[in-house]
Design goal:
Shape: globular
Low-confidence stretches: 485-493
CATH topology of the largest domain: pyruvate-formate lyase- activating enzyme
Mean pLDDT: 90
Strand order of the largest sheet: 2-1-3-4-5-6
Helix content: 25-40%
Bound molecules: iron/sulfur cluster
Largest sheet: 6 strands, parallel
CATH class of the largest domain: Alpha Beta
Number of strands: 21
Radius of gyration: 23 Å
Strand content: 15-25%
Length: 493
Amino acid sequence: MSETVYLETMGCQMNVLDSELVLGQLFAMGYVSTQDMFAADLVLLNTCSVREHAEEKVYSRLGQLKKHKVHHPESILGVIGCMAERDTDGILSRTPYVDLICGPGQLNQIPALIREIKETRKKAISLATYQSRRVDPAERSTMQFDTLEALDLSRRPQPGAALLQPYIRIQRGCDKFCTFCVVPFTRGPEQSRSPAAIIEEAQMLADAGAKEVTLLGQTVNSYAHMENSKRFRLSDLLALLQDVSGIERIRFVTNHPGDFGDDILVAMRNLPKVCEYLHIPAQSGCNAVLRRMKRQYTVEKYIDLIARARDTVPGIEIASDFIVGFCGETDAEFAETVNLVEQVMYKNIFCFKYSPRPGTAADRTISDDVPASTKRQRNIDLLNLQERISLDRNRPMIGKTVEVLVEGYSKAALKAQEAEQSRGQEIDWRRSNQLVGRTRGDKIVVFDDDEAQVGQLAQIRITAATALTLHGVCVTEQASRTDSVLPVLQHSR
Ligand code: SF4
């Protein structure tokens, strides 16, 4: 009988992709997936170190697994990803029953680590040995990519919606060293993957049914790869991807405002497949805070970039991240962030309360002196403001027709179907039901239609709007409809 693996993913899109590639390696070894962590022969937690809360969640999960490990000593328990790299000693001392620890740059070694554990019944640990940061990022070796990234479809085992809209990593690591961030320490120096490998992967995914690709990098706009004395930038890569047949939409996340060239905006305007969507984290609207964060741009430069983006790319939607309660953030400094959010009128924002991360410059040198209650209130205030803005921006969409890529059943529909299943009722999977799709500007649209529309581009007339979601009816001409060739969908992202 096949051995089973339970893999839980925490954190960002990079981790989602890493987990997919790890599963691909494990399936090649003969493992099959299980959703029951207490029944699994192999349990892997793919972890995030960006906030304290994320790490505590991992320790809590490891606590739940302690008894399981006592009763099933032959099972293998592993911590992989950023926390494995950042907090190796903590994992070893707090949870000595963990068998496998593997950093995010070593995930290609997981099959060898598992074999080693089975042979020796001893712990197996693999952490980074990063290359020199003095080398020009464009010339750094891409060796790590060659062994993990998927140039073979069996390494991309996710069915349904994930195959419709796969991630493609184009860059690893980060050289920015923002004072609050662990990523340069956990994921190492910035390295860009070769355009040829990216195009080959995109074509392979398109041939398997992918319609939309999202290019991933920590600072994706600083993508740079040297080949035959030519420097390829993100804009060059977007132009090459435009020619991949089968791909209808291209996105890229996430961006750093510091080195965002106009060439990328021009590519967004001129290349029909590149979506009019930019996620560009500001983190704060106050120059003094940005300096303490070492973000390497000013509020004025950020606002200028947003203006250039809106001038160059008609209809562009912009999203951002903010950290509230960063070291020393006064009421007046927070008010400047509120001003920025009011001025830019984002599509949406992601807002986080600052928590110091061991090893970062902010943790070593600046006091985390904003009370937790103030952080909480600022978080609530900023999110409430953005909710009003999102609603104001969505209401004028009523009556307009937008193009969406249909991703699957909406969360509400899936919940209803789960409830029917748990009551033992049979579900009519072919009946009309609520589907969800996304506009090119990344707005979420729900509408009633048939599952066969999943994977298709559909025209939706908007009939109602909330801050988060647009509601509509499908007005795609019957004659231009084609049934989906995708496998039965699992869920939408
Ligand atoms: S740009 Fe700053 S916040 Fe983003 S990954 Fe790099 S160090 Fe972290």
